[in-house]
Amino acid sequence: MSSELSLSVVDQSPVRKGGTARDALTETVELARAVERLGFQRFWVAEHHNLANFAGTSPEILIGQIAANTETIRVGSGGVMLPHYSAFKVAEVFRMLETLFPGRIDLGIGRAPGSDQITAAALSYPRPQLDIRHYPIVVRDLLNFLNDTVDDEHPFASLHAGPGESTAPDVWLLGSRADSASMAAEMGLPFSFAHFFGLATEHGPAIAEMYRQNFKPSKYLSEPKVNVALQVLCAETEEDAQRIGASRNLSRVRSVQGMREGVPPIEEALAYEYSPQEWAYLSKMKQSYMDGTRERGGGRR
Prior knowledge:
Helix content is about 40%, strand content about 15%. By secondary structure, the chain is α/β, with parallel strands linked by helices. The strands form two sheets. The protein has a seven-stranded parallel sheet with strand order 1-2-3-4-5-6-7. Strands 8-9 form a two-stranded parallel sheet. Helix 6 runs parallel beside helix 7. It starts with 7 loop residues before the first strand and ends in an 8-residue tail after the last strand.
């Protein structure tokens, strides 16, 4: 089993307070160009809906823009929220991207809504939302459409997810819990653990080990491959890291309170006085952050 470690980026295209969505998307493209120059292997973009502080509503469109403005870095979704969409349509979109940028496209898929429940309902309206029990079926259909391996007995066996080229993107399963890791292991797919969600982070090592132990080699992957998405902030000094992180901290608190606004500037964040309840929430969430200097490897704060 390979122990190779490589660095990648997942960007949520945050909108600054007083800024615009265009600013945020332009900064995402520029960040991708910068990390490509630094030798990073992948650059993924997220999917969020009906949120004022994140501009990334359509990863498939943003992926095309990033890939067109870079040369070698792999570009993908972190991820496409598959329950909202047709497996056939997602296969068509990502085979189109793979045709335009061969060997550079990743399709990370997840089952979280990427939004609140009413927005999730709007994404499927007037159709009913997907019964989450059917999610594994949709994932298998997607894999088969991407690779032209649909079973002859399938009702859509005659369809081809164009364009005509037979290449397909690399597919990753994303998740923050053991059931997603188990599904990735069973299907023989790479797994990306969303540590930055701040959910069950203490179980992350055990979830990754469970995935490795239960992995079944497949035509997609011969041995387990794990990606861990961490929230890391690195600065020249510990003080600078904590200062910059103040903006993120206040944004996180306001987001969980349902406030629809962009990421506040550092000065506003440093001047903010947290209530005891807000501070308790923030103290818990900060356990999943890694802030610090390069010399300390982004020491946790």
